[in-house]
Amino acid sequence: MTNSSTRLDHVVLWVADPVASAAFYEEAVGFEALRVAEFAEGKVTFPSVRVNEETILDLAPHSAADRMNMLPGSAGSAGHPVNHVCLALPADAFDALRARLHEHGVPMSDIGRHSSGARGDATRNFYFRDPDGNVFEARHYDD
């Protein structure tokens, strides 16, 4: 990828406790937590977690909704998660994520097969929720 190509930079999720959410994503999902200490110290308005070198999830506290005024009506989106966010992983990382979520007692759907996505039909997929009810799909494609 080049800096001039279009790609997903970040997704903002509404969460009740950004520090707890960052811990969930770091421990159960395996993402790198970013700016958690700075958030706890009041230096930044939210922490994030790194999905990969190009994409992060921002963990916005519900209390920040009244300051989300970049677009008329934005504050009204607090607490309304998107339908789901899909993570495409290599097969070994898919299996490792499922095992980590199981170890942390996170409920998951059964394994699905041949779900259509950006790169065609995925070999396997499953769904899980974070502690705030945001739904994630994990999938892998045959390479």
TrEMBL record:
Signal peptide: none
Entries under InterPro entries matching the protein: Glyas_Bleomycin-R_OHBP_Dase, Glyas_Fos-R_dOase_dom, GlyoxalaseI/FosfomycinResist, VOC_core
Residues of the VOC domain: 7-141
Protein name according to UniProt: VOC family protein
Organism, as annotated: Streptomyces albidocamelliae
